[in-house]
Amino acid sequence: MTSTTHPSLFSSLVNRYWEIWSEVFGLIGAWTTLLMDVLTWVVRSLIRRRARFGAQALAVQVVRVGTRSIGIVLLVSGCIGIILALQTAPSLEQLGQIDKVANLVGVAVFRELGPLIAAIVLTGFAGASIAAELGTMKVGEEIEALEAMALNPIRFLVMPRVIATAGSLLVLTVFADICSVVMGGVVGVLVLDIPYEVYKSNTLTQLCPTDFTTGLFKAAVFGLMLGLIACNNGLRVTGGAAGVGRATTNTVVQTTVAIVIADLLFSALFFSLGLN
Questions:
Q1: Lower Cβ count inside 10 Å, N or C end of the chain?
Q2: Distance (Å, rounded) from C-alpha 274 to C-alpha 124?
């Protein structure tokens, strides 16, 4: 009994492990293929007038994805700034360096938390919505209707959404950075009794252009990933309304995990290059 149970258990674990990695590589391949298609249409839209997707379609997506997300991004990022100031203050106070709260908040927000928090908030606010919208169109055979009229779905549906998520997340990250630092400063000045000029001076002294540019680079990549994952899940919906629900759930989970892993890789890369 034992000799037959252990091999079967081992083989089942190996098979499950292989299935998981096969699914992961399949998703990466699907995202890469969709990215290549989007880039192809972007190039075509720049060099051929007939291939342009229209500024109105992009503007609609920017308003929907970016403008409507400003409030929730500011709320969350402001809370993050307050939390950072309150949590780092006791340890720094023991070292007699309470004024260094400004340094920690500024670096943490501009390098990591600004783009990361904005991307995660946008994932829940807009990513799931994009997947649900495209999934509903897929179920309702609207995408097939576009193809029947010789209208490419990548050009008219995917490209505006991907560009909107990438561009919007860049701007939202700037808002998130400023809001977090300002709210951390409010706590530092009013609660921790750090002089305003000291807090301002420490923040400006600690931060450098590299902190800002690396954060924006991450934001652009995170926004691109968000748009690709959401559109890919929406275009692959099967099974009616239940399939739309699965697509929205998969979008949030896949995007969050992918963004965190990408942030880890970028942080390791920037550290090895001496950009931290």
A1: N
A2: 33
Would the CA dihedral through 249, 252, 253, 254 be positive or negative? positive
- CA dist 222 and 227 (Å) reads 9
Q: Which of these, 85, 116, 114, lies nearest to 102 by C-alpha position?
A: 85
Listed residue (135, 119, 159) closest to 254, CA to CA:
119
Sign of torsion over alpha carbons 119, 31, 157, 248: negative
- Compute the distance between CA of residue 237 and CA of residue 240 in angstroms, rounded to an integer: 8
Domains of the chain, residue spans: 54-272
For 67, the 3-state DSSP assignment is: helix
d(CA 253, CA 60): 26
Render each residue's pLDDT in the chain as its tens digit; 276 residues. 444 556 677 777 777 777 888 888 888 888 899 999 888 888 888 787 766 666 788 888 898 888 889 999 999 999 999 999 999 999 888 888 898 999 999 999 999 999 999 999 999 888 889 999 999 988 888 888 888 887 788 888 899 999 999 999 999 999 999 999 999 999 999 999 899 999 999 999 988 888 899 999 999 999 999 999 999 999 988 888 888 889 999 999 999 999 999 999 998 998 888 776
CA distance linking residue 65 with residue 131, whole number of Å: 12
Q: Which amino acid is at 202?
A: N
Q: What is the H or E stretch that residue 179 is in?
A: helix 159-190
Q: What does each C-alpha distance from 104 to 59, 109, 179 come to in angstroms?
A: 37, 8, 15
Strands (E), the chain: none
CA distance 251 to 141: 21
Token pair recorded at residue 49: 């007038």
